[in-house]
Amino acid sequence: MTGYAIRRTEVLVELRSVEAQRGGVKILRNVTLTVGAGEIYGLIGPNGAGKTTTLAVVVGLLAPAAGSIRGLGLDPVRQAASVHARTGIMPERGGFYDWMTPSEYLGFFARLYGCERAPDEIGERLAQVGLSARPDQPIETLSHGMRQRLGLARALIPDPDLRVLDEPTNGLDPRGRREIHALLMALSQDRGIGILMSTHILDDVERLCDRIGIIAGGITVAEGAVHELASIGRDLAAPERDGIDCYRLRLGDRGEDVASYGAPAAVSLLGREGDWCTVGVASKDAPEVVWRELMFLGWPVREIQRVDKGGASSGLERLYLELTKGEGREMAA
Amino acid sequence: MKLDAKIQGGAIASRQGGRSVPYHPLGFRGALTIAGKESGELLLSKRGLLWLLLVSIVLSAFALLLISNTELGLLDNAQVVYDMIGLVISVGALLTLVVGADAIGGEQERGSLIPLLLTPLPRSALMLGKLGGQLVTWAAML
């Protein structure tokens, strides 16, 4: 086997004023971000803001129409194989082979990465993501959360310098989310691996990320350290949110993982603090109907409080709402 | 409102040691891996097994017909064997085409193509593996 001579660099990913389009539609209009080694970078933004497209550009699946991009010091489009060899990637869609078992699946990808993994090493990867009890169970029998864990295990198969994760905690139960948080932080801190992750869960960002970029309408509208941006958010005046009413929900003991329960289209999860979470509900919808739908989906709602517009629970949330104001109306529609 | 927060770049940790990534640039082993996966998927999936069962029944019935039917029985044994071989090859190829038609498109629809494209495997090796898998499946059907 031949090792590629790859230039080592502290900055793992660098996008400057990147534009990209899909199917003739311009998705990214001006995206800028920088991910360093040992850093967890969160890419946040409303649905359709361009988070997944940005990640596609980073890993070389989509060539940018304009701007510059470097991944691990290389051009991800022209030197895709070299970039992929050093990058663990978890795409938005799992795309598993249902007829395989998790062990077989990870073994298959290990061979594609040119790393023959011993069975105990595969088992170790499965244990890291909490799947050690089901190594030989067909993937078709795994739940959504289990598949999510398997997708993460696949991203752990190579021994990379960079991990690119598209909504890694989506669909995980509360304990699973905590475990994945701990795993990602350990990878970042102990092994100096850079992690670029997209998410729409601000709680993940606040717990995990060193720096974040907020994307709205294909444009990076803010980038910086989490505490810096949260500080800016706290200083903002209460934002207007036309068309959206805000409520605080007190949740039962299962309430930590409300994001995994799913939500009606009219509801957007704005933030969470302790037992309380803040949600936005489209004004045109009757709240009673929305609460019934939430209960039906398994939300352990114990108490509901209407909050004033701008009742964001954290500075980061307030900043996010301010910067994605136009996008919010689109989401609620 | 556009905020332009200052980028904090000073806290970037230094990487710990260099790791060489084992990688096979020719991709032949990768192509074999893909071929193994493809043939396994085609032959072990419910759809593949169903097709195999179906073709076995059809060919068995046809063979029985050739032997038992008086008019067809006029053919000599060598001719029957030649006919059967031709039939098996062509039907096998047809069935391989049918079950392998979604080798790329089906993977794309199911979202499983992207993880393959994100490995260091060259795309030529991926295609080679896909074709190899079809050939193995054809051979198995024969």
Number of helices, where a helix is a run of at least 4 consecutive DSSP H or I residues of chain A:
12
Class from secondary-structure proportions of chain A? alpha/beta
Reading the helices and strands of chain A in chain order gives EEEHEHEHHHEHEHEEHEHEEHEHH
How big is the Rg of chain B?
25 Å
Major sheet of chain A: order of its strands? 5-6-7-3-8-9
Question: Can you put this structure into words, describing what you see?
Answer:
The complex is a heterodimer of chains A (333) and B (142). Chain A contains twelve helices and 13 strands. Chain A has 333 residues and is α/β, with parallel strands linked by helices. In chain A, the strands form three sheets. Chain A has a six-stranded mixed β-sheet with strand order 5-6-7-3-8-9, sandwiched between helices. Chain A starts with 10 loop residues before the first strand and ends with a helix. In chain B, α1 crosses α6, α2 runs antiparallel to α3 and α3 packs antiparallel against α6 (123-141). Chains A and B meet through α2, α3, β9, α8 and α11 of A and α1 and α5 of B.
Topology diagram in text:
The complex is a heterodimer of chains A (333) and B (142).
Chain A: E1 11-22, E2 25-36, E3 40-44, H1 51-58, E4 66-71, H2 80-85, E5 87-90, H3 102-112, H4 119-128, H5 144-156, E6 162-166, H6 174-191, E7 194-199, H7 202-208, E8 211-216, E9 219-225, H8 226-235, E10 244-251, H9 258-261, E11 267-273, E12 276-282, H10 287-296, E13 301-307, H11 315-323, H12 325-332
Parallel strand pairs in A: 3-7, 3-8, 5-6, 6-7
Antiparallel strand pairs in A: 1-2, 1-4, 8-9, 10-12, 10-13, 11-12
Chain B: H1 28-44, H2 46-68, H3 77-100, H4 105-110, H5 113-117, H6 123-141
